[in-house]
Amino acid sequence: MVNHLLRLPSVTPSLRCSLPPIGGSILQSLYSYSASSRCFFCCSRRRYRLNRVIADMESEKELMNEAKRSVNFRLCRVSGSMTEVMEIQAESPKYHVLFIPGNPGVVSFYNDFLESLHQFLDGNASITAVGQISHTSKDWESGKLFSLQEQIDHKVEFIRQELESVKVPIILVGHSIGSYISLEILRKCPEKVLYCIGLYPFLTLNQQSTKQSLIGKLAASSLLSATASFLVASLGLLSMSAARRLVSYSLGASWSDTAVQATCTHLRQYHTMRNVLYMAMTEFRELAAEPDWEFMRENQSKLAFLFGIDDHWGPLHLFEEISKKAPGTSLSIESEGHTHGFCCTVAGSVWVAQHVATLIKTRLNQKRL
C-alpha cells in the first residue's frame, strides 16, 4: 500500500524529453540557451561578412565590365580614301590615344589590345585606331597602291580632320612601322602630341636579318609581289569556315579568334596583299637610312619604345643605339615570351596593353610634378 502511494506517476516519452535533466538543470538550460545565442550571432556575423564580400565582388565585377568596353568600327573618308577606324570613346577623357598599326595595317587585328588598353587606363582615355589605306576588306581604292609616305600623310590628315576638335593631349602608340609613322606625326604635329610610344619598332633596316632581305627582294619585284598576292587571294575561293580552319591549323591554336577573323576577311584580298607588299617596298627604301638621331634627341622626353628579345624588325642593337644617342628615351625589353605579332594572341595583347598603360600613367604623373 505504502509502496503504491509513493509510486511516482509514469511519464510519457514525449514529456520526458521535455523535462530538464536532474542536477543543475536550470543552469544547464541557461548555458545551452546562451551557447545557442552566441552560435546564432556568430553565424549571423559570418553571413553578413560573406554577403559583404559577395557584394564587393559583384561591384568590382560590374566596374570591370563597365571599364572594359567593346570597340566600335566605322568607315570614314580621309583625303578621299576610305579608312577603317576602330575606337572607344570615354565619357570624360583626360587624353586621347591614337594607335597606328604596322604592316599589314588591319586595325581589327588589334581588337583585344585596344579593349584591354582602355580597361587598364581605367576608362580615362578615348582610343582611336586608324588603319592603313587599302589594307581593307573591300577594294575601295580600285587597286591603287599606296607608299609609306602616302600612309604617313594620310595619318596626319586624319588628325586634322577627325581630331582637330580634341581638347585633351594626344598620345601616339605605334606598332612596328607604325612606330616610324608615329615619329613622323610627332614631327609634323608637335603641339598636339604629348607622348609617343613605339611597340617592337621598325625604324631602320636590319642588315643582319636574312628574313628582311628575303622580304625586301619579294617586295621589290612587281612580278613576285603580284604572284604572291594572287596565290594568297586564291584562298578567297574557300568558304569562311574552311578558311578559318586552315588559318587556325597553319598558324597555331594560340592565335585569337579576332586575329584569325582579320586574316580571313582582309589578307585573302588581292588588293590588300598588293598594298602590303608595295608599302613594304617603300619602307625598305625609306628606312635604308639611319634614324634621325637629332630629332630623337630633341624629343627624347616624349619617346618610349618596347623591344622584343628576338625581333629582327626591332633588334636589340637598335635598343643599344637609342640608349646611347637619345639617352632620355624610355626603353624597355619584353621578356615574357611574346612576339613581334603580339596582337595575334590574347595573352600578348593584354600584356602589351598593360605595359603601355603603365608608361602612359607614369608619363602623366611626371608631367603633374
From TrEMBL:
The UniProt record lists the keyword Hydrolase: yes
Gene3D superfamilies, per database record: alpha/beta hydrolase
Record's GO cellular component terms: lipid droplet
Domain of life of the organism encoding this protein: Eukaryota
Molecular function as annotated in GO: lipase activity
Pfam families linked: LIDHydrolase
Keywords carried by this UniProt record: Hydrolase, Lipid droplet
GO BP field: lipid storage
Compartment(s) where it occurs, according to its Swiss-Prot or TrEMBL record: Lipid droplet
Similarity comment: family membership: Belongs to the AB hydrolase superfamily. LDAH family.
The name this protein goes by in its record: AB hydrolase-1 domain-containing protein
Species this chain originates from: Brassica oleracea var. oleracea
